[in-house]
Amino acid sequence: MAEVTEQETDQRHGSVYRVAGAITISRAATTQREIDALPDPLTIDLSDIERMDTVGAWLIYRTVRDRGAKVIGASRDEVSLLKQVGDFDVPTRVVPDEPHNFIAGLRELGEWVAETGATLVGLLGFFGSTLIGFANVIRRPKRFRVNAVVQRFDVVGVRALGIIALMSFLIGIVIAQQGSVQLAQFGAEVYTINLIGRITVRELGTLMTAIMVAGRSGSAFAAQIGTMKITEEIDAMRTIGVSPVEALVIPRIIAAVVMMPLLAFWSMLLALIGGGMFVWLSLGIPLATYIQRLQEVTPITDLWVGLIKAPVFGFIIALAGCFQGMLVQGNSEEVGSRTTTAVVQSIFLVIVLDAVFAVFFSNIGWI
Amino acid sequence: MTNPKDCQPIITVRGLRNSFGEQVVHEGLDLTVCRGEILGVVGGSGTGKSVLLRSIIGLQTPDAGEIEVLGENMVGRNDDEAKNIRRRWGILFQNGALFSTLTVAENVEVPIREYFPFIQPPLLDEIASYKIAMALLPPDAGPKYPSELSGGMVKRAGIARALALDPDLLFLDEPTSGLDPIAAAGFDELIRSLQQRLGLTVFLITHDLDTLHSICDRVAVLADKKVIGVGTIPELLALDHPWIQEYFNGPRGRSAAGSYEEGAGA
Q1: I need a labelling partner for A15 at 20 to 30 A (CA). Which of A1, A67, B36, B90 fits?
Q2: Are B142 and A85 an interchain contact pair (Cβ–Cβ within 8 Å)?
Q3: Is B134 in contact with A89 (Cβ distance < 8 A)?
Q4: CA closest to B133 among chain A residues
Q5: Residue of A nearest to B132 (CA)
Q6: Of B146 and A355, which is predicted with more confidence?
Q7: Are A345 and A244 in contact (CB under 8 A)?
Q8: In this complex, do A94 and B129 lie within 8 Å of one another by their Cβ atoms?
Q9: Could you report the predicted ipTM of this complex, rounded to two decimals?
Q10: DSSP class of residue A99?
């Protein structure tokens, strides 16, 4: 398409902008520049135009409005397009008002404080309603949903066995390898076994499992319940008379509480096997010696420390996941952000509690 | 069924076949859309109305058949080749499909920025403003986010975005679903007036009998995996197909038809 533009400048009559061909969105930037370059009074000659779209019409309309330009040679269609565009000349804002930086910062801080406070209070309230749910189920055991719980056992526990085994096995190898390199500097390589035994059983088995369960199941709880909130399934449950806490939250909490110690034990076992493999293949200590040494240096209280923490962590993970799921409202975007929050919150709480447990068990003499 | 004599085909579908696994959705489907008309597509649930739309706009690759849009063959094109056609159509998805992290005005600007990156922001904002006004949204809708809008406003914002590049062709997927009758009637009117003002061709999927009666020039009926009839509603009624009869002569169909006959008589 030939797109020729002619501009004439004449001191007495001002300038004439004559476009031939098309005045459309694809030439909008050029057209605007050309019009801006011409002095007033301006006349726009449209007699050679073949095609004009709403953007072209807008450019001309705007020039007429702001600079009092005169339009000549417009066909009937072009006149009506210009008029239509003018009809919709309503000032519309495009982006929301941005408040002042300092004020905005203060407001964000305030919102954060209020939200964190509300979340903590809400979590406490949710904890309370879960306890009430448990009490109801205990009083009327018929309301206990065995099928749901068994299904959660499968999802939370059995299906996590593979990934937790792999993770723990590798962690065991890493601890053994890193430990042996450092201890070799003191000629104390044999203490690698103490390191593996005590750290995996007492701390890492449970902690790594908790992090894995938070990422795997805590997030799933939040996403499942959040999606059910959006599709109004939870409202439907309430109207039918089914308590969402009893139907959704309690099975998940039971599953996490029961499965966490089992998975943690599984994790400890695999980490010990991984460490043993390294000790055997790399340091040349026979497996029988490894097992014997492990029994000598790892007190049984270490196992209790690891296993007592596990159900508490499971409870926290399930509670945070279900709580964040229940908080979802509005759009599907929120399911994503609530799921993230659930994982972050549960891992954070797990680590805080782990520190509390560490102090507690040291003080009662389980060193 | 023949097309009107002065029909300039803008969309031509021939021998379309679509299937999902074992299930065949379309088999030998033919359809022509003429320039400047509003074509309504109706059909029972699961007859593949949306699949037909997705095939035409290239989101679904058909098993067989030819699809021509604005004189260009659509099947087997890569994204770059299809770009020139894509800027000549606008699409309103069923739930608006507005980008949730952008304001309404920014949503309207997205296609313009994509195709014409040299347009300066002030002009861009002005273009977005009058597209928003054209879709009859209130002026304060521009800086709002999609989550702050009502259902009807989401659809209007979707129309504003579809119109961003001055398309020749507008695809609407159930534009009035989920709207109350007053909003739906207002939306029908908006589609009609935009079509007349801008000389658009409209391809419209709908379940809304009122929309069919009030604004559609022709109606295409999907059943038995193909288009069983295209024409004005009286022409379709003459076909004597059981589904068509039940659709237009069922209780809802009759009341919708009745109200438009009364309207015409008054």
Answers
A1: A1
A2: no
A3: no
A4: A88
A5: A92
A6: A355
A7: no
A8: yes
A9: 0.72
A10: P
Q: Pull the structure tokens for residue B244.
A: 């068509």
Q: Which of A192, A196, A148, A147 lies closest to A168, judged by CA? A: A196
Measured distance CA(B180)–CA(A364) in Å, rounded: 68
Chain B touched by A96 (CB under 8 Å) = yes
Residue predicted with more confidence, A220 or B264? A220
CA-based nearest distance A242→chain B, Å: 29
Q: Is the pTM of this model over 0.90?
A: no
Domain A4-87 in this protein, CATH class:
alpha beta
Distance from CA of B16 to the nearest CA of A (A): 34
Q: Is A28 on the interface with B (CB under 8 A)?
A: yes
Residue intervals of chain A classified under CATH 3.30.750.24 are 4-87
Nearest-5° Cα angle at A289, A286 to A292: 150
Q: How confident is the model at residue A154 (pLDDT cuts 50, 70, 90)?
A: very high
DSSP A39: P
Nearest C-alpha of chain B: how many angstroms from A57?
11
pLDDT in tens, A261-271: 999 999 999 99
d(CA A79, CA A192): 89
Distance CA A148, CA A143 (A): 12
Q: List CB contacts of B25: < 8 A, sequence separation 6 or more.
A: B18, B19, B47, B48, B51, B225
* Backbone angles phi and psi of A49, in degrees to 5: -75, 135
Name residues whose C-beta falls within 8 Å of residue B51's C-beta, 6 or more positions apart in sequence. B18, B25, B26, B60
Distance, CA of A158 to CA of A172 (rounded, Å) = 21
Q: Which residues of chain B lie closer than 8 angstroms to A90, CB-CB?
A: 129-130, 133, 139
CB contact under 8 A, A95 and B143: yes
Across the interface, of B109, B118, B133, the residue whose CB is closest to A92 is B133
Q: State whether A91 and B129 contact (CB < 8 Å).
A: yes
> Nearest residue of B to residue A331 by CA position?
B147
Q: Could you give the CA distance from residue A137 to residue A143 in angstroms, rounded to a whole number? A: 6
Q: Which residues does B167 contact at the CB level (< 8 Å), separation at least 6?
A: B87, B88, B89, B90, B200
What are the CA-CA distances from residue B93 to residues A364, B16, B172, B175, B205 (Å)? 65, 22, 6, 8, 10
